[in-house]
Design a protein that fits this description.
little secondary structure, two-stranded antiparallel ribbon, single chain, 2 strands
Length: 111
Amino acid sequence: MFAFGLLTTFQGELFDGTRGLLELADERVEVQVEARCWCGSRATHNARLVDGVQVYDGKLFVIDDPNDERVAFRTALPAPLAVRPNWSGRRPGRGPRERSGLEAEPARQVV
C-alpha cells in the first residue's frame, strides 16, 4: 500500500490516521521532494498563522472563512506570494539556495 500526505498537525503531533499507518507499515520511505519555506529554506513542518504569527493551539481543522481577515492564505491574495513575509517575519529570499548556486522557482500568485 502506498500513502502520501502530511505526517503531523500544526501542533507537531501525528494525525490519528498517520499514527495508525505508521504502526502497521513494514517500511516508510520519504518522497524525494523537498518543500520550501517562503524564505527559500527547507520546510520542516506545518504552521498555522493568525495575524501573521505562528500559533500552536486552536481547532485542528479550520475551513477558510471569507469574512475572517486574519486568514493566512486566501483565494485571492492582495499581493503576489513572492513578497509576503514568512512566519518568522522575514521576506522571501534566496537564503541557502543562493549559496548553492541553485535558482529558486518563481513564486506563483494564488487566485
